[in-house]
């Protein structure tokens, strides 16, 4: 990954920018401008009865993207922080423009990629503009189910891990259960869960909680058990109670392992969420994917996948931000 900060001049804001830096900032604008020229210059190829009503709007979005990036390049001459970010992301934005141009060329312009499996970019825009009520409701349903299941699983895993790590008697009973049930994929419990639970939503919460509970318990238990005994000895010499040792010594020392468990549980919950929504829950992004597949609406599938990727990536980013905020003594040790 290029490191733009090594080639960006630092110091007070200045209008003098090295030509190579300016060219690097203008490159994405030029690339998106070429995509716009390609979109307007070549006519769309007719493919059966398929009509894309937002094709012209998509072309104007390319123009808007090129203009926006050109404006960023001009403004960043006076803002060193913005200039550094613009230079850093310029290669990625340029590659995105190349990808979009090829996508437009192979689908709408030349029709090389077959419809309906491959749709032009305007087909995705059509989904977001025309089907946003259904897609938005699916997104909210997935968020509600994921939040309920992940919270229950993380809380249960944290309590179980602390109890097992602190009390040997609890660890004695929990350990065989963990070894027997923990490695079992939660998706294998789908038929049983949808039979025993009164609704698809409660069954989905149970499955996501199970997927989160196992890594959360194991990592919390490991973190509590690996705390240095000297920490407890020092606290006891100062008159610390049992509750103080757990809450103010053991748990803070185990927080790095706890966050690793949260990351692993969150990743596992994504897979279970989609599987549960496809199999039994009658709403959510997983259900939307299956519904779109049933109707052969592949543009809806791609649109839902993009929303899903943005949602999951945002949640992981949020969890990393919370981790960096809580574990201030370990800033940036794990990168995302």
Question: What's the number of extended β-strand segments?
Answer: 0
Strand content is: under 5%
Radius of gyration: 26 Å
By DSSP (H or I, 4+ residues per run), the number of helices equals: 12
The helix-strand sequence is: HHHHHHHHHHHH
**Share of helix, binned:** over 70%
How far from one another are the termini? 14 Å
Apparent shape: flat
Instruction: Provide the structure class.
Output: mainly alpha
Strand count, sense and closure of the main sheet?
A: none
> Are there runs of 5+ residues with pLDDT below 50, and where?
1-13
Characterization of the model:
With 336 residues, the protein is an all-alpha fold. It is 75% helix and 0% strand. The protein contains twelve helices and no strands. α7 crosses α8 and α10 packs parallel to α11. The N terminus is likely disordered.
List descriptors.
disordered N terminus; 0% strand; 336 residues; mainly alpha; single chain
Brief write-up:
The chain contains 12 helices and no strands.
């Amino acid at each position: 990954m290029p490191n733009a900060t090594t080639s960006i001049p630092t110091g007070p804001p200045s209008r003098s920018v090295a030509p190579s830096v300016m060219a690097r900032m203008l490159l994405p604008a030029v690339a998106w401008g070429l995509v716009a020229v390609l979109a307007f210059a070549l006519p769309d190829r007719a493919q059966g009865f398929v009509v894309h009503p937002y094709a012209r709007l998509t072309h104007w979005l390319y123009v808007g993207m090129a203009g926006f990036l050109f404006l960023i390049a001009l403004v960043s001459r006076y803002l060193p922080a913005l200039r550094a970010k613009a230079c850093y992301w310029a290669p990625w934005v340029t590659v995105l423009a190349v990808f979009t141009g090829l996508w437009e060329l192979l689908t709408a312009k030349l029709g090389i990629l077959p419809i309906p499996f491959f749709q032009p970019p305007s087909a995705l825009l059509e989904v977001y503009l025309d089907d946003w009520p259904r897609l938005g409701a699916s997104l909210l349903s997935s968020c509600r189910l994921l939040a309920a299941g992940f919270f229950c699983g993380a809380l249960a895993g944290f309590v179980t891990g602390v109890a097992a790590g602190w009390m040997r008697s609890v660890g004695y009973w929990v350990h065989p259960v963990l070894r027997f049930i923990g490695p079992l994929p939660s998706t294998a419990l789908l038929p049983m869960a949808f039979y025993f639970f009164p609704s698809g939503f409660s069954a989905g919460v149970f499955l996501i909680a199970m997927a989160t509970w196992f890594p959360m318990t194991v990592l919390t238990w490991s973190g509590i058990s690996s705390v240095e005994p000297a920490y407890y000895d020092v606290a006891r010499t100062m008159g610390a109670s049992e509750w103080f040792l757990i809450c103010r010594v053991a748990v803070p020392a185990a927080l790095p392992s706890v966050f690793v468990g949260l990351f692993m549980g969150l990743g596992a919950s994504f897979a279970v969420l989609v599987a549960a929504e496809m199999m039994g829950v009658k709403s959510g992004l997983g259900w939307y994917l299956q519904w779109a597949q049933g109707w052969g609406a592949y543009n809806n599938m791609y649109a839902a996948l993009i929303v899903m990727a943005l949602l999951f990536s945002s949640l992981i980013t949020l969890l990393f931000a919370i981790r960096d905020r809580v574990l201030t003594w370990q800033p940036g040790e794990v990168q995302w």
